[in-house]
UniProtKB/TrEMBL annotation:
Belongs to the universal ribosomal protein uL29 family. Pfam families: Ribosomal_L29 (PF00831). Keywords: Ribonucleoprotein, Ribosomal protein. InterPro entries: Ribosomal_protein_uL29, Ribosomal_uL29, Ribosomal_uL29_sf. One of its GO terms (biological process) is translation. This is Large ribosomal subunit protein uL29. GO terms for cellular component: cytosolic large ribosomal subunit. Gene3D superfamilies: 6.10.140.1970. It comes from Bosea psychrotolerans. It comes from the Bacteria.
Length: 70
């Protein structure tokens, strides 16, 4: 079972790695939504974890690109 990414782990990632992780999480989010729609989802809390991880990554990406351009 996958766990939520820690913020400290995400902070050390490069922008490219964050983008990779974001794509992976979006695919997982799609699969989770599909499982929920078909009634096959067992761990409903994972949907929330993935959504929050996506938000964390987007926030870090935005702050890293702002720091580079400033």
């Amino acid at each position: 079972m996958k766990t939520a990414k820690r913020l400290s782990d995400l902070k050390v990632m490069s922008v490219d790695l964050l983008q990779e992780e974001l794509l992976k999480l979006k695919k997982e989010q799609f699969n989770l939504r599909f499982q929920r729609a078909t009634g096959q989802l067992e761990n409903t809390a994972r949907v929330t974890e993935v959504r929050k991880d996506i938000a964390r990554i987007k926030t870090l990406q935005r702050s890293k690109t702002a720091a580079v351009s400033a």
